[in-house]
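Supplementary Methods. Inverse-folding protocol.

Structures were first reduced to a discrete structure-token string of length 118. This string, shown here, constituted the complete conditioning input.
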């Protein structure tokens, strides 16, 4: 079945780093933009970062300069390198691809928990 599997979350102290990975089930996703979202307790899900099929990136202001999204199309995988983590980065992080703009269903990873605390 078509699916996204995200991983790499964990618990770190403020200032620490984590790298999240999202593996797609097929090469079809290589031609579409892919995204990372996050949802903190009691808050709406927000878009964190986007990367196009050719590597153009965009970031939420809250993470710009600290997070880097990248992709390896040969491995059908997208990454989110998170540096200088802050407690407010604590959330469940989800990878995402698709939507009506792309004539594609929306696909979501199962979510991976990131906790930043001292």
């Amino acid at each position: 079945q078509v699916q996204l599997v995200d991983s790499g979350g964990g618990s770190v102290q403020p200032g620490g780093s984590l790298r999240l990975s999202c593996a797609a089930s097929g090469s079809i996703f290589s031609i579409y933009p892919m995204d990372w979202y996050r949802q903190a307790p009691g808050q709406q899900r927000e878009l964190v970062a986007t990367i196009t099929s050719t590597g153009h990136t965009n970031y939420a202001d809250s993470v710009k300069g600290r997070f880097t999204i990248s992709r390896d199309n040969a491995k059908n995988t997208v990454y989110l390198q998170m540096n200088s983590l802050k407690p407010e980065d604590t959330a469940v992080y989800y990878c995402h691809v698709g939507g009506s703009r792309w004539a594609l269903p929306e696909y979501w990873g199962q979510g991976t928990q990131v906790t930043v605390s001292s």
